[in-house]
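Internal ticket #5521
Category: modeling
Description: The requester needs a full-assembly model to guide mutagenesis choices. All entity lines are attached below as received. Residue total reported by intake: 797.
Assigned to: D.W.
Attached entities:
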Amino acid sequence: MPVTVKTFQAVSEAASALSSDRAARYLGGGTLVMRDLNEGDVSIATVIRATDRTLQSIDVAGARIRIGAGVTFARVLAERDLAFLHPAARSIGGPAVRNMGTVGGNLFAPAPFGDFTVALLVLDGMVALQGGFGVRDMPIEEFLQSRDRQAGALVVAVSCIRPASADAFRYRKIARIKPKGGSVITLAAHLPQSGGRVTGARIALGSMAPTAVRAKAAERALEGRPLDASAISAAAAAAAEGTAPADNSLASAWYRREVVGVHLRRLLSGQES
Amino acid sequence: MLELRKDIFADERDDNLNEIGKGTQRQDMLGHVTGTSTYFNDHRLQGMLHLRVVRSTQPHARLRRIDTSEAERSEGVRRIIRGSDVPRNLNTLLSLINFGKDDEPTLAIDKVRYKGEPIVAVIADTPRAAAEAAAKVRVDYETLPAVFDVEEALKPGAPVVNETYPKNTFTYHDRYDHQKLRFGDVERGFAGADHVLEQRYQMSPIEHAPVETNGAIAAPDTNGRYVVYTSTQALFFSLDTCAKILDLPSNTFHFIGGTVGGGFGGKVDTLTEPLAILAAMLTGRPVRYVLGREEEMQFGPPRGAERIYIKDGVMRDGRIVARQIRAYFDSGAYTRLSSYAVVKCAAHLPGPYTIPNVHGDIYCVFTNRTPATAMRGFGITGMDFALECQMDKLAHLIGMDPMEFRILNAYRDGDMKAHRREAKNTALIECVQVAAEKAKWPIRDEFRRMSSRKDGGGVRAAVPSTPREPAQPRSAPAQQRTSYDRGLSAPSQPEPPPPPPTSPAPSPAHGATRFSSVFGTRRR
């Protein structure tokens, strides 16, 4: 069976085509789907596309920033209002991948990829999904946990909050090949402070589980405490808790568990990687 | 910018050369920068079919059953090729120069020896149809214990990877399981040394990662010939290899190469051409066989891994008095070119230094890993990395500057090298001096005044007395030969027995038999 490509104008039509065909995959920028097709993945029989302009929109006017699922990382980098997301966008692939790869597709990128999602995870990220009954918002954490079962739903946008302050949000990707290697570990932290104490700590890790995950034990270690050496040490010691990294050619699971605390300590204490 | 130091190399080069030493535009550059270079895969032939290979998912397994019945019925499938369809389904690359035994099938028959090994080839109308049919091939594996470590592979009772070499080592000169280098007496050297340092070095395999993956398009031509567009970096080598595997005269094929989209040694193994041509022969249609990126990584050969042990004896004044090296080259499941890497390595020891006692044992070892092949200085690069790390450690151990330490031990014109050849045109001292100067690294005047042309030879030209080791039991010195003949179609047999030494093989005789330090006695 040759692969069929179906292009729709409306997101809702694309979503219903996607949900009615188990062998259908949505093509955003193609950096994941075309790779699979070129490698001969026979599980994909239909490729669905949507030309809806809303997929390309970026809305920075409201309290939450909303980015269309079809926005590429190159566009994120060109947007001055998204400056806090530039380090995460810049850490993905090379220029060719950033010109094609999309924010929506990044949610589906398997480890050691999907770095942008790690950043969204600490910024109270939400995923807007087009289902049969309209668009609904889902917390990104919940989305990632059920990602494999979301095959029929179409992501139309992601949203996130702005960091409480420039210093409150930190992002770092540990890679062996710079600037465009896959992730050994990707770390993001959002640490708003009030009265000298961390409130609402969020720490997320990439390549430490099949999807990006929050490091909740490390978050608890920081919550309500000043961001000092002892709190950072406690967070670093708890960094690997609840993670399930895998072996791959970039690093072993053992290595990732061993060094995640080291990198978290450096990130939180403002040291170079 | 290239700079030739005429003060050092006054007699090295004629200055009236037309090209060498002058800035010249690469002839392929214009095509590359304008995107007009033509690659093998730019040919779209009418009625072209596509070939996809079903590969082993196991590193070591017996093939109980290969069921292609469902795949044969799959839409768009034209033909399925099995190992039994390959005229001569056993080959080794360097058999073209009578080096090594045929040990690698084009398609596995009874057993697979590494993950990614080809088992059957599916030919279909489109790449998609080929992929769908390939997914329907059922292979029943009986998994066997696998060995991935070179030293584990040499232990008694280790799994036999490749039955052609039951000891898991390549066989040199019909008798030897490794290459030896003996010069002087290292044990005496160690006994008299102020310090002895032994270290272990481990190199990883390195993938060539060409932008263009390996591939070929073969098409029937007139007069029963076949035209082959290929990515090969060794056109006539690939052509002769195909002639052997397909058991046809080499003038059956018209190979068209040209722009190689990245080779570096990863495109000499003739991975795709034999099956592409065989598929064109069996279907009468043009056939394209191109590796995907994952295939290139898993099945395409890397630079081989090496494990190296270096033991050095050094005096407080900086002289290295003994160097013992034991190295294991990981050939993967088949020979390809690692056998030759070992020979090159043995010829390179002990590095560019004059050391009176040298002892080398280099093994080419078979493991259940992807076969390794050529890559930029293979056999030398990894060993040099280990040697130069060792040089730094030795310098540190005796508290000497590492640059001066290398100058002190560097070979000089007239010195005897460990293979009993006199060193000529040496220039390591000058290289280190210039490197130190460029790096603004201070070295003492006496080292700045040293020269490769001075103070060599004399006692340094002597071959030291070398203790003999007990000889191994002799077997008949029979040079392994293949019955491959370019003109006639030789009878097809999986592994031709080596002819007795008294009857010379009908090889193309261009001249008298001569001795080669690489390949032993051979004709040229």
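Resolution: model delivered.
Comment from assignee: The two ends of chain A are 49 Å apart (CA to CA).
Ticket closed.
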